[in-house]
Amino acid sequence: MIAALLGLLAQLLHIALVLAAAPLLAGVMRIGRARLLGRAPPPLLQPWHDLIRLARKQPVVAAGASPLAVAAPHAAFAASLAAAALVPSFALGMASAPAADLLVLGGLLALARAASVLAAMDAGTAPGGLAAGRTATLGALAVPTLALVALALALAAGSTNIDRIATLAAHGGAPHAALALALGALVLLAPADEEAALHEAYSGRHLALAEGAAALRTLTLLSLIVAVFAPYGIVAASGLPLLWPAAAIAWAAKLAVLAAALAAARAARA
Predict the structure, then answer these.
(1) What are the tens digits of pLDDT across the range 136-180?
(2) With contact defined as beta carbons under 8 Å apart, do 162 and 199 qualify?
(3) Are 28 and 42 within 8 A, CB to CB?
(4) Can you tell me the distance from the alpha carbon of 66 to that of 62, in angstroms, rounded to the nearest whole number?
């Protein structure tokens, strides 16, 4: 009973952390990319300010759009948040651990992307159509990539459950060629998913939901890399809650390193 309560408490704290950290992660990447390109960096909290500003604005919806254009941004954000809730951050064995499967994660990310594409196409505008085509193309690359990751990790750990894979890695699971392949695929997948925000198709609070969903998806993929390949410092949810702050700080530090590396890769590509 106590273990279940601790797992539920860890889950609620995890959701609060990812909601707060996703825009900050985007801010870290913006700062890193600006410095590498020789530009003045924006403030770290600028993504939060942008989201708050957009959330206060009324969205503009095309005259011929169906109710799908209004419901899709909310559905995409909900699916992205559900995906982020499955990937452990500072603790293993949270309430969502039984459902934390790589196939479920891939389905939620695909659902979020599909909702965004359908909403952009539903508007019937040229910018929305271009954005939908770009996102669908990236999705066609992302889905088989995530399937490859699931296959490689399942071969290595004997399961597609993220908690089980992270537990084996934390206890000295030896990496091999399959894990190296999965790591490379995830590194390629992270920037592609982050760029899939449909800025041309949304406005107002719908754009805030789209940007928040994109930030959550990037955080989810980077957290998956951390949980599987660098689970050092992660603790059991059923253990001492006093260890949670240190584990959360370690998770944030690893995310910051990955975000800086991702910003450097994007700056080099630019």
Answers:
(1) 777 677 767 777 777 777 777 777 888 888 887 777 654 554 555
(2) no
(3) no
(4) 9
